[in-house]
């Protein structure tokens, strides 16, 4: 994550420990780690959430396609 945060400075990354915040993650449909939910002006605009682990390349591809 630190590498992604450095490369994508226009984004604010917030880490949530799924084990400590299981109710929140369930309500958001967070199934795998890491998962990414993008908000703009308080509204969800995109997400990259599934049960599989994600590679750095997959996350970069996701972030690069967000408007």
From TrEMBL:
Gene3D superfamilies: Glutaredoxin. The lineage of its organism: Bacteria, Bacillati, Bacillota, Bacilli, Lactobacillales. This is Thioredoxin domain-containing protein. SUPFAM superfamilies: Thioredoxin-like. Residues 3-63 form the Thioredoxin domain.
């Amino acid at each position: 994550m630190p590498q992604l945060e450095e490369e994508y400075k226009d984004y604010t990354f917030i880490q949530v420990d799924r084990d400590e915040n299981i109710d929140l993650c369930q309500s958001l449909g967070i199934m795998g780690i890491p998962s990414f939910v993008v908000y703009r002006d308080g509204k969800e605009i995109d997400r990259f959430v599934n049960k599989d682990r994600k590679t750095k390349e997959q996350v970069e591809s996701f972030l690069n396609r967000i408007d």
